[in-house]
């Protein structure tokens, strides 16, 4: 049962009750409908207190495990105080029954006189014996099969009925019930013991239709005349009255809404002017429950949320919403709601093509041109998930009977440069190009520019011819210097070539001759003093270096001032000894493709030259001096059935045996493409001497590489020596093993079992025709001759015909096998005795 508590605001507490109340009492709130037994509402969900009226309204519901029901009970403070002034309910022990006890209540009425006596009785009394009864001893409003959640109360002054209490109670689905509690008038019969009349005025739906909204709080604010509803997502404001919806005086007065009356000045249903219900022009009758004689026109409920709906006879969808004519429902001849009950929008619309447009103009006035037409997917346009149009939105066709467009000429590639016009010296060379890429047609312009290009070229250096005349006689006493002499000669030189140029240069020599001393030659006159007495003159300055890099030379001179001086008259020293920086020359032309058929290579070279002395080679240029690239010659002729063979290796040398061999390998996954032999043999007697010499030159390594490789003759000799050495060692081991076996008795043991030969190693051999051992050895050697010094197979010399020996042909389908035999005898388990049964003449290297 719900309870109400009371405590003094100045409760001091006592020893043992300092942290608790000493004046606290509680009593039950009784809200039940009369009956036998009475129907009780035991859960208090909401409360509204009216201080001015000293009363409160409580909203009660049944328990969760019972049948749903709700009730509103009104309690005044007189009934509350009467209950707390009554007897206590006391239980002397946990096992005893509750009894009614009357005791002094001064302390609970906030009169603190006998504290010692209270200390003994305080723990005993907490609950009052009787419950607080509601006004009129029953609920003012009840509702079956629903649970109300919140309550708000407003006190409305009226013209003839005094203050009327208007209750707003919230339902579980979010709707609000507006209820009036009207005091009984003098016309009420005395037999009715209730002092108030409760009327349901209307049901307010503040939220959309079928919207399940949970209300968290419900508050009424008289200053704004509004009811505020708090939900999970929003706060909704609802006016407390809707007087304007009543169009006539009779409908306004019959509604019995305490907020509404008829304004004779405005001829409208409205709240009282200036909140004064006693204005003479505002008419309001005695408030009672609404009468049911006036017709009620229907009103639309709020629109439902938009939802997906199906089109009739189509799988496509639309967005629909609905409303109902139940706010209010038409009654007593009232008009039905005007307007649509449902609205449909955003229906699926599939796209449709418009008609084709007219053909456009041709895209060009000559040559190849097209014209087009278009259409659009807008008849109608696809909307709301509709399908787009299927097909092309434009089409094109060629324009016919157009004249060809003029074709402007275009230059072709330049031809190769012609030979230089001179064999030596500086000449010219030229190259041409043709206006044929494309040729001008249909009146198109010719190519612009020159069809011939000329540049300077130089052949080899033309020889330069020089001729010297004889020296003239020495002239004496030049420039007033005694003993100074000079002579002359003429040097004529001409550079040979297409335009020889003659150059004439006069050279001279000077010398100083003194009496009784030899003459000093090549002395500059400006260094000769008129009167030279003494030792050497100072050295001249060093001359400029005759080279900028690569070790040049500087000179200086001095003059002897006397007739005899010791030492040289000139000195030289090296200069600019740093090496010249290398610079690459131009690349040479690409060489011819080698070989001439099939895949090959081309190469070009360049030279690293000194940047300051172009005629000298340098070595510090970055990069390589040789460049190679792959090339493709003409397709080599391949006889039918030999497409899968590799190229023949080089012929082996005739220097070792009297015949030579070569081989090839099948490189195809399809054996049918490899017909013929994989080994050829030719007698050296049938080969011309010049071919043998050429072959030996080709197979012989360069002189600078012979010391690094192994010659074929050395390799063959080593193989033969190893062969005989192996045979000798094998024979000795066989003899030693036979002797030991003779004197050894093998014990009868299951661990000593005979071993059958197992083929662990198969060695490809040949189905030889019966020949002598010497011929087989010779043939075996010839197979080894097919290897070069580096172990790779070389291409054979091309000949018009080859001599094949049928006795050495290797069939591809048959092979000989040799087996390495092992025994589990203990004497062989340590690796000391290994017996190999391999035929040496069936081993080949390819």
Automatic annotation (TrEMBL):
Chief localization: membrane
Keyword Zinc carried by entry: no
Keyword set includes Disulfide bond: yes
Membrane topology of the entry: Single-pass membrane protein
Top-level taxon of the source organism: Eukaryota
Biased composition regions of type Low complexity, renumbered to the chain: 785-794
Membrane-crossing residue ranges in chain numbering: 715-737
Boundaries of every Sema domain copy: 1-240
Name of the featured protein: Semaphorin-5A
């Amino acid at each position: 049962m719900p309870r109400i508590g009371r405590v003094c605001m100045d409760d001091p507490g006592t020893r043992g009750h300092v942290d608790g109340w000493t004046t606290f009492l509680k009593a039950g709130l009784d809200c039940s409908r009369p009956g036998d037994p009475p129907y009780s509402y035991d859960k208090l969900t909401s409360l509204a207190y009216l201080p001015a009226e000293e009363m409160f309204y409580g909203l009660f519901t049944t328990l969760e495990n019972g049948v749903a029901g709700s009730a509103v009970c009104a309690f005044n403070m007189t009934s509350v105080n009467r209950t707390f002034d009554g007897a206590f309910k006391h239980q002397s022990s946990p096992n005893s029954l509750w009894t009614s006890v009357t005791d002094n209540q001064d302390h609970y009425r906030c009169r603190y006189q006998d504290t010692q006596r209270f200390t003994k009785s305080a723990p005993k009394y907490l609950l009052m014996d009787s419950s607080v009864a509601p006004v009129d001893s029953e609920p003012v409003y009840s509702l079956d099969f629903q649970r109300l959640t919140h309550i708000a109360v407003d006190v409305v002054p009226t013209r003839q009925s005094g203050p009327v209490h208007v209750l707003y109670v919230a339902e579980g689905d979010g709707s609000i019930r507006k209820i009036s509690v009207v005091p009984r008038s003098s016309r009420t019969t005395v037999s009715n013991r209730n002092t108030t009349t409760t009327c349901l005025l209307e049901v307010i739906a503040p939220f959309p239709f079928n919207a399940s909204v949970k209300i968290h709080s419900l508050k009424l604010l008289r200053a704004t005349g509004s009811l505020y509803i708090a939900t999970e997502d929003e706060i909704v404001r609802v006016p407390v009255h809707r007087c304007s919806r009543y169009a006539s005086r009779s409908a306004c007065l019959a509604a019995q809404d305490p907020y509404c009356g008829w304004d004779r000045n405005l001829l409208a249903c409205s709240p009282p002017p200036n909140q004064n219900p006693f204005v003479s022009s505002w008419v309001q009758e005695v408030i009672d429950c609404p009468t049911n004689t006036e017709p009620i026109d229907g009103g639309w409920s709020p629109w439902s949320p938009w939802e997906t709906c199906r089109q009739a006879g189509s799988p496509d969808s639309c967005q629909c919403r609905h409303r109902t004519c139940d706010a209010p429902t038409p009654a007593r001849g009232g008009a039905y709601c005007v307007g649509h009950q449902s609205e449909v929008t955003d229906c699926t619309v599939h796209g449709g093509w418009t008609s084709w447009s007219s053909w456009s103009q041709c895209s060009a006035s000559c040559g190849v041109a097209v014209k087009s037409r278009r259409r659009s997917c807008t008849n109608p346009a696809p909307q709301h998930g509709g399908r787009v149009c299927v097909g092309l939105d434009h089409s094109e066709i060629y324009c016919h009977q157009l004249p060809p467009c003029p074709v402007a000429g275009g230059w072709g590639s330049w031809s190769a440069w012609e030979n230089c016009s001179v064999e030596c010296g500086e000449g010219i060379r030229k190259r041409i190009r043709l206006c044929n890429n494309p040729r001008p047609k249909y009146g198109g312009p010719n190519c612009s520019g020159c069809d011939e290009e000329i540049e300077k070229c130089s052949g080899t250096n033309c020889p330069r011819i020089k001729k010297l005349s004889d020296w003239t006689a020495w002239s004496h006493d030049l420039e007033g210097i005694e003993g100074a002499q000079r002579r002359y000669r003429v040097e004529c030189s001409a550079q040979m070539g297409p335009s020889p140029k003659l150059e004439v240069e006069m050279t001279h020599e000077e010398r100083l001759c003194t009496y009784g001393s030899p003459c000093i030659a090549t002395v500059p006159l400006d260094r000769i003093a008129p009167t030279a007495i003494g030792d050497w003159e100072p050295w001249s300055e060093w001359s400029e270096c005759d080279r900028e890099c690569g070790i040049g030379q500087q000179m200086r001179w001095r003059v002897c001032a006397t007739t005899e001086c010791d030492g040289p008259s000139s000195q030289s020293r090296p200069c600019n000894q740093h090496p010249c920086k290398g610079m690459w020359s131009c690349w040479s032309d690409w060489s011819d493709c080698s070989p001439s058929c099939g895949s090959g290579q081309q190469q070009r070279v360049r030279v690293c030259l000194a940047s300051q002395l172009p005629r000298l080679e340098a070595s510090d240029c970055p990069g390589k001096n040789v460049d190679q690239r792959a090339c493709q010659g003409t397709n080599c002729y391949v006889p039918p059935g030999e497409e899968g063979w590799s190229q023949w290796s080089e012929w082996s040398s005739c220097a070792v045996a009297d015949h030579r061999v070569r081989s090839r390998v099948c490189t195809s996954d399809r054996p049918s493409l490899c017909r013929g032999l994989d080994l050829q043999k030719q007698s050296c007697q049938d080969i011309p001497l010049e071919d043998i010499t050429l072959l030996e030159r080709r197979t012989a390594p360069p002189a600078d590489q012979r010391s690094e490789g192994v010659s074929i003759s050395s390799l063959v000799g080593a193989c033969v020596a190893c062969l005989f050495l192996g045979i000798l060692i094998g024979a000795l081991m066989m003899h030693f093993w036979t002797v030991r076996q003779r004197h050894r008795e093998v014990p009868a043991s299951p661990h000593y079992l005979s071993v059958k030969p197992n083929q662990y190693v198969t060695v490809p051999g040949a189905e030889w025709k019966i020949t002598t051992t010497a011929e087989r050895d010779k043939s075996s050697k010839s197979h080894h001759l097919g290897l070069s010094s580096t172990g790779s197979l070389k291409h054979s010399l091309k000949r018009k015909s080859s001599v094949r020996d049928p006795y050495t042909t290797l069939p591809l389908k048959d092979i000989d096998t040799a087996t390495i035999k092992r025994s589990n005898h203990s004497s062989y388990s340590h690796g000391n005795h290994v017996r190999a049964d391999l035929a040496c003449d069936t081993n080949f290297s390819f």
